[in-house]
Amino acid sequence: MEPFDLGHEVSRLISLHSDLAGTTLRGAIRDVLTEVAHVCHRHDIDFDERVDAAAEVAAEEMEEVQ
């Protein structure tokens, strides 16, 4: 069994949603983030804090690549 690649799966989901909904990539990303916000709300998780934390991790990952 191959390891699970979350980045690949999220990219695939965004692309699929963009195609099926007839929206732009930007619109599809907004829609996916909106759904993540709903999940956070249902579980009493601070969405803005999670977005900030994700941005920090992404910045660190980008620095590692350079």
Describe this structure in words.
- It is a single chain.
- By secondary structure, the chain is mostly helical.
- It has one domain.
- The protein has 3 helices and no strands.
- It has helices spanning 6-21, 25-42, 47-65.
- The longest helix is centred in the C-terminal third of the chain and has 19 residues, at 47-65.
- The model has no long low-confidence stretch (mean pLDDT 96).
Taking the alpha carbons of the first and last residues, their distance comes to 31 Å
SSE succession: HHH
Number of domains: 1
In total, the number of strands is 0
Give me the Rg, rounded.
Answer: 14 Å
Structural class: mainly alpha
Provide the β-strand percentage band.
Answer: under 5%
The poorly predicted ranges are: none
In short:
The chain contains three helices and no strands. The protein is mostly helical.
Which key features would you list for this structure?
66 residues; mainly alpha
